[in-house]
């Protein structure tokens, strides 16, 4: 390699030009062709010479000078110029280090000339390309341009050279061209004194995205050059960024606006180029300019997130500073950070820990879009590889399923569903991963407890597409459902059952709507039923009207819909129907058609996509496989016994919603097999399935009927109590000559009743009780004597075996004595018999109620001989309380329940035993939810305000909320029931609550502050929920009601001045609550309240009760403020554990309830002899009355 110095003097002494042998003079006198021919020979001569040819160098010096004259440098012919350039390149090589040209201007002209010739490299197909390549190779090898370092205009020359090379490089060039260009340019950077901004720009401009995309080869060339010269060029790059970023001098370069793009590119080329620039970015991250911070954040996101980037580990301060921007005040900055998270998680799992705490805060960001994108980031990374996200991150997604915004909830739910399908169903990352996210299925189904119809619809869609994909082949689909059901938690199972129930109900509504359309006269209450099941309540009303119109006019659509809701519709048929209807209603001209969208929602909810006869058959086969031991239970992580139980539970639920799908011999035969299994739960479920689905069994499958009947009769006589009960109901539901079958069971059982063997008594009593309920006329005479003589005299009025002495108030089911269990069955038999008879002509109802209240007033020990153990007494109190609740659901018995009996029953909710309170509250809630128990029983929940256990209070509140909402909904949908207003309008619970509290045994001293505080709490317990919404000016209505009560006397003890004083005092407490919590109480009441006549006397017109009965110090306890809105979220269903599962919970709670507070919810004297003074009935007279039934 040769280096040059600029010569100081001209060594040519005379002007004579010597040409190589055979070459004549080259001047403008000859033709172009001749000139080219001669120049080629000159080129050859110079090409063959080297630095040592001293004589020749001297000889051809003038020729060298001649070739640099303007005549050649400005020659119009490009071939001539190319040849001259080749000569000049060789001349620089040969004469190095002393170039023969002295004038700086001349040198500039020559190099600008050579640079211009290099443009010829562009056309790789040209005949002259090799000469152009020779020119490039020569000047690169000799580093000829280094001569220019001394020239004033060096920058202009180099800039022009760089520009030219970047312009001509293209994909026709081979590696050598690329290499020579890099050599040529890098020598200028590495060996020069400085790199001007202009020169730097010619390189950097090729990295700007717009240029990069236009000319990839120029980008590669710039990249190679920067890599080669990294060390030398770094200070100039730093200076450029310093000028622009720190000093804000954007005028230094046209590239100023692209600084962030350039930093990214340079970082990707060689991070050393930015050693001093990165700290400047840290400074910029803290800039006061929002847009500037946003740009830096976008840039760093790409730098930190890039696949092989080690920036976070190399530059910790910058990484920490960047993480701080997750909490930026500017929304777009936070949004950018959150979006970056998914790339970062995917490319740098090691940074997940750092990101987690910042994403946690952002998942609670006030901006909806940011919360939404946190989910997107986490889910995107999870879908790439589950190991990239830790449990905390998935938990953020889980939390957002309850976000207040629908868009965020939807994203979170869909994200979890996709993760579940990928890793749990398709097991793409093995069993461990599947286990890690097994909670998703439960969580998604829990969302069905939400009030919002959008959430519920989405859960249904997710279930059909992700949890049990409907497009799976039938056997696979049912296997998937079978194991899903077996592994769901209790609340998720309830949600899934509820989902099928809702869809089934909607199917029935649509079926009714179709039937209605066929009739000439129509009512519209059905529309409401359908409307409530679709999103966006505002628009559904018009939708249902339009749907009814379409169905009326279009018979084809009506037929398709009829097929869809018919019980025998198969999954494949359903698919066809849905397609047909949407095709017929959709039009290509109107792609977004809101009516069609609503129709799709409706179809999605009513189409049977999972269950048909074939599916049930496949499900039964799956259960049989488990029974035979040939299923994959262990692989699926489910113990076989659990799988079989769950399978039958699942079939049981489906037998309610899809009974017709069970009608096949194969299904019924398999169920018969289940009846004979030892597992009681399995046999119970099989019996219930027969009861729900077997109405056509007698005529369609006679061979199964005969076998089944024998099994049922055996179970009714000798099976476990629950199976006996279901066996009786099966016979009742399935067989035509049931009287005969009933008689065959009743007679032998009736005759063989014997109190000597209590254990053997429980099943017969259960069976007889259900026979009494289903066929009271058939066995009227024997039942009367059975109740009077056997049940009351022999069973209930005798304590044969002394109970265990224990301080415990409750023991698990399996520890309860057989005698107590038999007595409970005896009580149930009496109640069932009364419910069967449904009239009180023989006054049996009165005597039974006296009997039940005697049990309550004697604390469960009816004989009062003290032989019974405390747990047995608790059981009997519970049984008696629940029995009264059952009778109160039948109007003919509700009428005869006295107020004292009602109050005794109500006090069971304050029983000293926690489990009694819990079970009684559940029974009470169930009766109220079905709108079977009268409204006064809703007031019983007010007594829960003083329960010492927080869970019980919370549960009672949820029950109140649900029941109040339920009644309000019912009144909205059934506008015609206004005559029943007093029994439905939730506000009417207030008089009952007031009356109940007046007669509360804890309320002894009328003016006692502590007792009044309890009463205030109890009233507020119910009023808070009633007053949360002031619907139809209800606050004024409640005020008017309380005012009216003050004008009456107590209906129970109208002449007792103390009781009446209590009544007015409690009214004043209620009034003060209403006044302190409402701003509209003083308005005119919408209607005049009607008070229940049994509870209050008629108002005395001459009497105006304006006295204030409260002690003055009570005033301070009424704090003003609005009632909180009741948030129910379906939670009522959560604490209500199923009876089968309750025992484990109860035994755990016993330590809380029995040990700590001895289960006494209020004052110590509460339970013992409670209300005895008022209602104690002497036992001997009771026996006499009951015996004479």
From TrEMBL:
Compositionally biased intervals (Low complexity): 1153-1164
Subcellular locations according to the entry: Nucleus
Keyword flag Transmembrane: no
Record keywords, A-Z: Cell cycle, Cell division, Mitosis, Nucleus, Repeat
Region (Disordered): 1151-1172
GO cellular component, one term: nucleus
InterPro entries: ARM-like, ARM-type_fold, Pds5
UniProt protein name: PDS5 cohesin associated factor B
Native source organism of the sequence: Cyprinus carpio
Phylogenetic lineage: Eukaryota, Metazoa, Chordata, Craniata, Vertebrata
């Amino acid at each position: 390699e040769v280096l040059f110095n600029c010569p100081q003097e001209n060594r040519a002494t005379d002007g004579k030009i010597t040409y190589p042998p055979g070459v004549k003079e080259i001047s403008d006198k000859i033709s172009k062709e001749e000139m080219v021919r001669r120049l080629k020979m000159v080129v050859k001569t110079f090409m063959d010479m080297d630095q040592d040819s001293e004589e020749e160098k001297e000889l051809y010096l003038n020729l060298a000078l001649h070739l640099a004259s303007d005549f050649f440098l400005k020659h119009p012919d490009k071939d001539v110029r190319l040849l001259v350039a080749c000569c000049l390149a060789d001349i620089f090589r040969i004469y190095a280090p002393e170039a023969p040209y002295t004038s700086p201007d001349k040198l500039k002209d020559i190099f600008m000339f050579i640079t211009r010739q290099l443009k010829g490299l562009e056309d790789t197909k040209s005949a002259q390309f090799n000469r152009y390549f020779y020119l490039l190779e020569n000047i690169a090898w000799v580093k000829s341009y280094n001569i220019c370092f001394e020239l004033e205009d060096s920058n202009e020359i180099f800039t022009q050279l760089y520009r030219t090379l970047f312009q001509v490089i293209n994909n026709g060039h081979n590696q050598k061209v690329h290499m020579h260009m890099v050599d040529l340019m890098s020598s200028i950077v590495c060996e020069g004194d400085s790199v001007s901004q202009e020169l730097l720009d010619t390189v950097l401009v090729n990295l700007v995205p717009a240029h990069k995309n236009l000319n990839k080869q120029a980008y590669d060339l710039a990249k190679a050059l920067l890599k080669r010269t990294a060390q030398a060029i770094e200070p100039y790059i730093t200076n450029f960024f310093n000028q622009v970023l720190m000093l804000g001098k954007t005028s230094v370069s046209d590239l100023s606006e692209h600084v962030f793009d350039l930093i990214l590119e340079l970082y990707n080329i060689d991070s050393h180029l930015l050693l001093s620039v990165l700290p400047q970015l840290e400074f910029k991250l803290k800039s006061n300019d929002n847009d500037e911070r946003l740009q830096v954040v976008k840039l760093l996101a790409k730098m930190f997130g890039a696949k092989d980037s080690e920036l976070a580990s190399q530059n910790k301060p910058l990484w920490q500073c960047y993480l701080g921007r997750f909490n930026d005040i500017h929304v777009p900055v936070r949004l950018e950070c959150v979006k970056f998270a998914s790339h970062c998680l995917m490319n740098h799992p090691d940074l997940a820990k750092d990101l987690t705490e910042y994403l946690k805060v952002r998942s609670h960001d006030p901006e909806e879009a940011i919360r939404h994108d946190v989910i997107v980031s986490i889910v995107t990374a999870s879908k790439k590889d589950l190991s990239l996200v830790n449990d905390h991150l998935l938990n953020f997604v889980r939390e957002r399923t309850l976000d207040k915004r629908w868009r965020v909830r939807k994203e979170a739910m869909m994200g979890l569903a996709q993760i579940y399908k990928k890793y749990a169903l398709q097991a793409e990352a093995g069993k461990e991963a599947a286990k890690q996210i097994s909670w998703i299925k439960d969580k998604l189904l829990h969302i069905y407890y939400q009030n919002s119809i959008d959430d519920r619809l989405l859960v249904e869609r997710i279930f059909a597409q992700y949890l049990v994909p409907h497009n799976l082949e039938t056997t696979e689909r049912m296997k998937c459902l079978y194991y899903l059901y077996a592994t769901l938690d209790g609340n998720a199972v309830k949600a899934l059952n509820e989902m099928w129930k809702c869809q089934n109900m909607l199917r029935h509504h649509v079926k009714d709507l179709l039937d209605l359309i066929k009739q000439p006269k129509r009512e519209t209450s059905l529309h409401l039923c359908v409307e409530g099941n679709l999103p966006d309540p505002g628009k559904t009303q018009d939708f249902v009207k339009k749907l009814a119109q379409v169905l009326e006019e279009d018979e084809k659509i009506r037929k398709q819909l009829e097929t869809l809701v018919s019980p025998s519709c198969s999954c494949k048929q359903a698919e066809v129907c849905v397609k047909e209807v949407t095709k017929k209603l959709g039009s290509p001209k109107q792609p977004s058609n809101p009516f069609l969208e609503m129709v799709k929602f409706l179809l999605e909810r009513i189409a049977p996509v999972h269950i048909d006869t074939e599916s049930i058959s496949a499900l039964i086969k799956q259960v049989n496989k488990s029974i035979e031991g040939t299923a994959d239970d262990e692989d699926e992580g489910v113990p076989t016994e659990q799988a079989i139980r769950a399978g039958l539970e699942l079939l049981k639920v489906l037998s309610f919603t899809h009974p017709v799908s069970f009608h096949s011999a194969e299904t019924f035969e398999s169920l018969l097999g289940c009846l004979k299994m030892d597992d009681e739960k399995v046999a119970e479920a099989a019996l219930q399935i027969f009861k729900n689905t077997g109405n056509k069994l007698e005529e369609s499958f006679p061979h199964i009927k005969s076998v089944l009947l024998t099994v049922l009769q055996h179970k009714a006589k000798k099976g476990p109590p629950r199976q006996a009960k279901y066996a009786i109901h099966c016979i009742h539901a399935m067989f035509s000559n049931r009287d005969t079958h009933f008689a065959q069971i009743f007679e032998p059982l009736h005759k063989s009743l014997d109190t000597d063997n209590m254990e053997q008594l429980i099943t017969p009593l259960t069976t007889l009780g259900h026979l009494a309920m289903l066929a009271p006329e058939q066995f009227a005479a024997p039942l009367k004597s059975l109740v009077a003589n056997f049940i009351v005299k022999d069973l209930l009025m005798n304590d044969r075996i002394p109970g265990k002495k224990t301080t415990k108030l409750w023991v698990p089911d399996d520890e309860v004595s057989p005698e107590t269990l038999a007595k409970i069955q005896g009580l149930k038999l009496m109640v069932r018999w009364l419910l069967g008879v449904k009239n009180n002509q023989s006054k049996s109802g009165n005597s039974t109620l006296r009997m039940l209240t005697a049990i309550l007033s004697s604390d469960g020990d009816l004989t009062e001989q003290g032989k019974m153990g405390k747990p047995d007494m608790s059981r009997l109190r519970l049984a008696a309380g629940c029995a009264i609740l059952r009778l109160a659901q039948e109007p003919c018995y509700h009428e005869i329940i006295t107020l004292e009996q009602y109050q005794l029953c109500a006090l069971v909710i304050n029983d000293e035993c926690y489990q009694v309170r819990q079970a009684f509250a559940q029974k009470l809630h169930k009766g109220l939810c079905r709108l079977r128990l009268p409204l006064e029983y809703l007031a019983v929940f007010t007594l829960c305000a003083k329960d010492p256990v927080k869970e019980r209070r919370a549960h009672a509140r949820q029950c109140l909320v649900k029941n109040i909402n339920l009644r309000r909904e019912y009144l909205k949908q059934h506008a015609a029931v206004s005559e029943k207003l007093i029994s439905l309008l939730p506000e009417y619970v207030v008089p009952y609550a007031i009356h109940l509290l007046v007669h509360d045994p804890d309320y002894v001293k009328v003016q006692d502050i502590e007792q009044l505080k309890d009463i205030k709490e109890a009233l507020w317990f119910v009023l808070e929920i009633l007053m949360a919404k002031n619907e139809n000016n209800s606050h004024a209505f409640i005020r008017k009601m309380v005012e009216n009560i003050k004008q009456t006397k107590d209906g129970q003890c109208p002449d007792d001045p103390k009781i009446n004083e209590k009544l007015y005092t409690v009214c004043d407490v209620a009034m003060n609550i209403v006044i302190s919590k409402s701003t509209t109480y003083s308005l005119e009441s919408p209607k005049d309240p009607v008070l229940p006549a049994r509870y209050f006397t008629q108002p005395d017109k001459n009497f105006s009760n304006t006295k204030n009965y409260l002690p003055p110090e009570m005033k301070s306890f009424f704090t003003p403020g609005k009632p909180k809105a009741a948030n129910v979220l379906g939670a009522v269903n959560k604490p209500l554990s199923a009876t089968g599962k309750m025992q484990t919970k109860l035994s755990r709670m016993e330590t809380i309830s029995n040990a700590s507070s001895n289960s006494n919810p209020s004052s110590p004297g509460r339970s013992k002899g409670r209300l005895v003074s008022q209602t104690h009935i002497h036992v001997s007279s009771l026996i006499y009355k009951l015996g004479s039934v």
